[in-house]
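Internal tracking record. Fields below are filled automatically when a chain is submitted to the structure queue. Please do not edit lines marked as system-generated. If the sequence contains nonstandard residues, flag them in the REMARKS field before resubmitting.
Queue: standard
Priority: normal
Entity type: single polypeptide chain
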Amino acid sequence: MHMRLIMQLQVIVEEQAKPYASMDAKIRNLKDMASTLAFCQENHIESREELESLLASTHEDYTIKKKHTPSLRMSLRKPRIFSGTQSSVTPIRRYTSSS
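SYSTEM-GENERATED OUTPUT FOLLOWS
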């Protein structure tokens, strides 16, 4: 594992040594900033406080849903028994070809 990390660090250092690396980094940063600005404008976020509030509420929502996910999965896995029949019915899975 350490060897892989060392190899990755060497690749990063080599990439940064190339003359166009700083230009690529600047372009990547500008693209990230543009997408962040677009997100803020689309969601009417005009201040850092609004963004932090949205992040906090999103994290809280994620935490709540994550707690309920295991019980939801278990309830979906249980076989269903329809009235009038004694056998359980398993859902049919449909697979589509990638072509």
